[in-house]
Amino acid sequence: MTDIIQGTCLLMCPEKERWMREKEGLLHRFEIDESTKANKRPKADPMKTVKCFGRPAAGLVMTDPDQLRPAPVLLSTIRYLFTRIATRSDVDWIIVYDFIFDRLRAVRQDVAIQRIDIFTSIRIFELIVRFLVYSAQRLCDRSIYEFNPKINYQHLSECITHLLVLYDDNDLNDKGDCLELDRCMEKLSLNDNRQQMEALYILLNMGNVEALRRALNLPSNLRKSSDVQLSMKISFAWYLKNYARVCSLIQQLSPLLACAAITNLQIIRKTALQIMSSGYNSKVLTFPGLKLQEILLYKDIEKVRADCELFGLTFTEQNILFQKTNFKNEVQSTNPEMYYTHQSLHNFLPQILLKSM
After folding, report:
1. Is there a contact between 238 and 245 (Cβ–Cβ < 8 Å)?
2. Is the pLDDT of residue 351 over 60?
3. C-alpha closest to that of 319 among 273, 280, 288
4. Could you tell me which of 162, 248, 254, 242 has the C-alpha nearest to residue 207?
5. All residues at 6 or more sequence positions from 318 whose CB lies less than 8 Å from its CB, including other chains
6. Using the 8-state DSSP alphabet, how is residue 4 labeled?
7. What distance in Å separates the CA atoms of residue 91 and residue 316, rounded to the nearest whole number?
8. Where are the alpha helices (DSSP H) in the chain?
9. Beta partners for 4?
């Protein structure tokens, strides 16, 4: 049996790494001692420097306890990132995202190496999932050179899938030890967050049969929760390609769940426009653009025009001429558009990222 490794580093960044990055000029602007920022080689602030992600390499010992942070330090590190960095409004948020994204990868790495207990791992991964979902919406209108939604989604998918495995493992542990008071208290504290995470999984995999099957097999208290019920309705509506009902129900979601559902909005709009090109096919009759804007949750009629032109549809005087023979099915997706304003998303930060911290 492999020995459990217990980290001994009580700072957000091990001293060895901090000294190395200070010497090599690898400190991030968020980690610099403000009194030395004008220096050629600024000094690190030990209270602001956070361990960065590093891949295993020859000669690098990943299991050195001095370089690993125990569970309480990992949680306090995430709390610092979310309260002191994510809330900054004095810098471009893409800089904030890149910094936090990398430091959360390092947190995940420390969790895996030490095999942190299930309960703490669940708390950590819930927080990481929230950040990745939030970021997908906040940065969706940025260029691919600044923000890659596919990479963000890949990490989000890995994290939420791992989180569901942790929930299932925790359920098995409960069955074998359900009379212990501490286990019962843990379960109570997990349920509120879990229903949100289960709902997120359903929305991120909208229309997916396996995701719906998992939802139907959840314990009764989770399956009947408002978040899971609404998410299942949306997912089933999308399975039936009822785009109007999907978009209508999305507006009833809480901000974080809406951010997850909106990751599917481009494919929803493309599919809707394709269906309408057949259903409203005509050489002379047009469909009102403002009505389409309302149905498909567009914030701007110009976005409707841009998407119609992208798919080869005629847009004239704010109306659309649907002709199925002109629809360009080879186009992969519509133009990205934010569902919330930047200011709204910034205001949602405490509600989304700092929940249950």
Report:
1. no
2. yes
3. 288
4. 242
5. 288, 289, 290, 301, 305
6. P
7. 40
8. 15-23, 71-80, 93-114, 118-138, 149-176, 181-204, 209-216, 220-223, 226-239, 243-250, 255-262, 265-279, 289-295, 301-310, 342-353
9. none
State if pTM tops 0.85: yes
N-to-C CA span, the chain: 34
SS3 32: strand
Q: Which residues, other chains included, contact 11 with Cβ-Cβ below 8 Å and sequence gap of 6+?
A: 18, 46, 49, 69, 73
Write down the residue that tokens 């708390």 correspond to.
123
The model's pLDDT over 68-81, given as tens digits with 9 standing for 90+, comes to 999 999 999 999 99
Contacts with 142 (C-beta within 8 Å, 6 or more apart), sequence order: 94
What tokens does 11 get? 């700072």
Instruction: Give per-residue pLDDT as tens, 244-267.
Output: 999 999 999 999 999 999 999 999
Q: Are 183 and 177 a contacting pair, CB within 8 Å?
A: yes
Question: Whole-angstrom Cα distance, residue 267 to residue 274?
Answer: 10
The token pair that represents 155 in the structure block: 């990490």
User: How does DSSP assign 181-246, residue by residue?
Assistant: HHHHHHHHHHHHHHHHHHHHHHHHTTT-HHHHHHHHTS-HHHHTSHHHHHHHHHHHHHHTT-HHHH
Encode pLDDT of 180-210 as tens digits. Answer: 545 555 555 566 799 999 999 999 999 999 9
CA–CA dist 131, 103 (Å, integer): 12
**Would you say residue 334 has pLDDT above 90?**
no
